[in-house]
């Protein structure tokens, strides 16, 4: 399978959960195999949306997929 790249944005550094497992931190490029993933952040649950379902294909190191979480008020 092909290597794919994405970045999870959040105002601060937080742990990123992919398919229920911690796989890195926000605001840094992550590398995975192509495929479908559920992406969320680790606790505390003060962010929105709750999760993203992404289909990771056709990315590159220079043009990663970007998902962005915002702080919930």
Features:
mainly beta, Immunoglobulin-like, three-stranded mixed sheet, 73 residues, 9 strands, four-stranded antiparallel sheet, single chain
- By helix and strand content, what is the structural category? mainly beta
What is the CATH architecture term? Answer: Sandwich
Tally of helical segments: 0
Approximately how much helix is present in the residues? under 10%
Whole-number radius of gyration?
12 Å
Share of residues in strands: over 45%
CATH superfamily: Carboxypeptidase-like, regulatory domain
- Biggest beta sheet summary: 4 strands, antiparallel
**Spatial strand sequence of the major β-sheet:** 3-2-5-7
**Quaternary organisation:** single chain
Say what the CATH topology is: Immunoglobulin-like
Mean pLDDT across all amino acids: 96
What is the 3D form? globular
Number of domains: 1
Report the end-to-end length measured between terminal Cα atoms. Answer: 40 Å
CATH class: Mainly Beta
Low-confidence stretches: none
What's the total number of strands? Answer: 9
Tell me what you see in this structure:
The chain is mainly β and 73 residues long. It has one domain (3-71): Immunoglobulin-like (Sandwich). The chain is built from no helices and nine strands. It has strands spanning 3-9, 15-18, 21-25, 29-33, 35-41, 47-48, 52-56, 65-68, 70-71. The protein has a four-stranded antiparallel sheet with strand order 3-2-5-7, with no helix packed on it. Strands 4-1-8 form a three-stranded mixed sheet, with no helix packed on it. A two-stranded antiparallel ribbon has the order 6-9. A hairpin with a 2-residue loop joins strand 2 and strand 3 (21-25).
